[in-house]
Specification:
Layout: H1 7-11, H2 20-28, H3 37-73, H4 76-81, H5 84-119, H6 137-144, H7 147-173, H8 175-180, H9 186-226, H10 231-242, H11 245-266, E1 272-275, E2 280-285, E3 295-301, H12 303-314, E4 319-321, H13 323-332, H14 344-362
Parallel strand pairs: 1-4
Antiparallel strand pairs: 1-2, 2-3
Helix pairs in contact: 3-5, 3-9, 7-9
């Protein structure tokens, strides 16, 4: 029993690494490998590191704001009647900006740097462009229950569970301190709560950073896997970017035919044809008004050489046999170029011979 295989199925398997064009096109669509947790974790670490450096200053600012508020509220009637409310809101806004702007600035800078480190500079509106396929309910349900959604769900649940475990374990170690804060001065309470919160956030951020490193490696692998191509896709891309090889061959053949036709049209203008005698033929013309050296109008080998000699015979152009000169001219001088200085003497002898023949025919 003979087994039949459809080779087309094998050509559609995505076994090839993505080409640079495929990666570039995907990048323009916003399809890049990056971890959202990486800038979030590093940003959180940066913000709380900054808080640790300027925490006492911020606590002083916070208590100063409370005292200011209490002073304004001592006389509610004066607060609302004498225009103090405007001053209070101005000072409140300044207080909020002084506390939040540095933290937001650090978070923004860290986020930009981490995103740049992952994907480089990328600006594209492709992911946010409205598309009908995005509002297709059937496709939405399909995406909801896809393998990708399942993997993301497992990752989120696992990450949340581990973070919760880290947080609970740390809080358990500081339960006594949390109970004691109820009996302490407000400033001491704030400091203790800050220390506990700082330790908790740093541990969670470091844990999230480690997860983000593994997530980034996974995203790179997943993105490369999604961009894998089949052999047929690579062939199709090559045809689109470079053109159909058969069509290109036909175009080149047509161009050669046109160039050959133009070259043959120049042969009747030649002063002499130098031959090998059968393998090479070179047509030269010497015109002092055009240049100081003879010009190569046409050249050919084998069949083309025979055609050049045939046209020369039809127009009574002298044909001179000089094997070494014909080969040298064919190999070293291109069509439309003047002959090099080292060949002046040899070509001059041929031209002199031709001019003598013409003079003899006149008499």
């Amino acid at each position: 029993m003979l087994l039949k295989f459809d080779l087309q199925l094998f050509s559609e398997e995505k076994t090839e690494q993505p080409t640079s064009k495929k990666i570039r096109d995907a990048r323009q669509k916003g399809q890049v490998a990056k971890s959202k947790d990486l800038p979030a974790s590093v940003g959180l670490l940066a913000v709380f590191f900054m808080l640790s450096q300027y925490g006492s200053y911020m606590v002083d600012q916070l208590f100063g704001f409370f005292y200011m508020t209490a002073a304004y509220m001592e006389s509610p009637e004066a607060f609302f009647s004498n225009g103090n409310i405007k001053n209070y809101f101005n000072e409140t806004l300044l207080f909020i900006l002084k506390l939040t702007l540095p933290l937001l600035g650090v978070a923004l800078i860290v986020g930009l740097l981490l995103n740049y480190a992952q994907v480089g500079f990328l600006f594209t509106l492709e992911p946010i462009q409205p598309k009908l396929s995005k509002i297709n309910p059937l496709k939405g349900l399909k995406n909801m229950f896809s393998t990708k959604s399942l993997v993301e769900l497992v990752k989120s649940v696992t990450k949340s569970g581990l973070l919760l475990y880290v947080a609970i374990s740390y809080v358990r170690q500081h339960l006594k301190e949390l109970i004691l804060v109820l009996e302490l001065h407000p400033r001491q309470t704030v400091l203790i709560m800050w220390n506990i919160t700082y330790g908790l956030v740093i541990r969670c951020a470091l844990f999230l950073f480690v997860i983000a490193i593994f997530d980034f490696a996974y995203q790179k692998w997943k993105n490369n896997k999604d961009l894998m191509m089949s052999k047929q896709e690579i062939k199709d891309e090559y045809k689109q970017s470079e053109g159909d090889p058969q069509l290109k061959a036909k175009i080149k053949q047509k161009q050669r035919a046109i160039a050959m036709s133009r070259m043959m049209q120049e042969v009747p203008k030649a002063d002499v044809i130098i031959t090998n005698p059968t393998h090479f033929a070179v047509a030269l013309k010497y015109d002092q008004s055009v240049g100081a050296a003879p010009l190569l109008l046409a050249k050919g080998q084998d069949l083309i050489a025979q055609n050049i000699k045939k046209i020369a015979g039809e127009h009574n152009i002298p044909i001179v046999e000089n094997k070494p000169l014909a080969q040298t001219l064919y190999k070293t001088v291109e069509i439309g170029e003047f002959i090099p200085a080292e060949l002046y003497e040899a070509v001059a002898e041929v031209l002199a011979y031709v001019y003598n023949l013409k003079q003899e025919k006149k008499f």
